[in-house]
Amino acid sequence: MSLSVNEIRVRLIGALNAMPACAEELRELDAALGDGDLGVTVKAGSLAASDAIAKLPPDAALGDVLIATGKAFSTANPSTFGALAGGGLLAAAKTVAGRQEAGRAEAVAIGRAAAARIAERGKTQLGDKTVLDALVPSLDTLEAFAPDSGDERALLDAMIGTADQQVRATAALQSKKGRAAWVQERSIGHADPGATAWLRFLEAWRG
Question: Fewer Cβ in 10 A, N or C end of the chain?
Fold first, then answer.
């Protein structure tokens, strides 16, 4: 279940181009907890990243793809989420520098490195009601999936199921980070927008 860097580029461009469809949903979720800019951040960042990937040379390695994605996403519409996601991708790029293909092990390494950088830069952890609350559990599902399974669809379905469950669980939590923390108890009852964005990306990647 390994993909070449060119296959990853095509899949990633397709997923990123699909993300603007959830911009309004993310704006509404973010408006309930913060300043409502996440929809704009995800839409602008995704389209900029897609364009940056398309402009890379044919022989670009996977690390180059992640670097281009991270830089484009973080600068398209400067925001905390953009900076954290971009920084996470830059950290992840180091785990696959020079590689021309990636399988489950590389995907786990990419995800873990990105999550660790987001946690470090955002000074956050599981349970703080952030993107990590969906990202980390879905990576746990990815890592626990049968190593010899070649059924990518089943794997993605399992990751999406985990992420969806965790997004729903964030609604019961009180936000502890960012602008969302300012509304205190009023943040309870609303799913975390960052976690939702990760869920929507997984769905877009699955197609």
Answer: C
How many domains does one find in the chain? 1
**Cβ(65)–Cβ(89) under 8 Å?**
no
Nearest Cα neighbor of 118 from 152, 167, 83 is 83
Q: Which residues pair with 3 in a beta bridge?
A: 102
Quote the DSSP letter at residue 98: T
Q: What is the pTM of this model?
A: 0.92
Supply 20's token pair: 């603007």
What is the domain extent for residue 78?
3-206
CA distance 24 to 169: 21
List per-block mean pLDDT (blocks of 10 residues) for the chain, which spans 207 residues. Answer: 94 98 95 85 98 97 98 94 97 97 95 98 90 98 79 94 96 64 58 95 97
Q: Which CATH number belongs to the domain containing residue 157 in this structure?
A: 1.25.40.340
State the Cα angle at 87 between 54 and 154, rounded to 5°: 65
Q: Where are the alpha helices (DSSP H) in the chain?
A: 5-18, 23-33, 38-54, 62-76, 80-93, 104-122, 132-144, 152-170, 193-206
Distances (CA, A) of 154 to 10, 100, 151, 177: 20, 24, 5, 33
Question: What's the CA gap between 134 and 166, in Å, rounded?
Answer: 5
DSSP 126-140: TTSSSTHHHHHHHHH
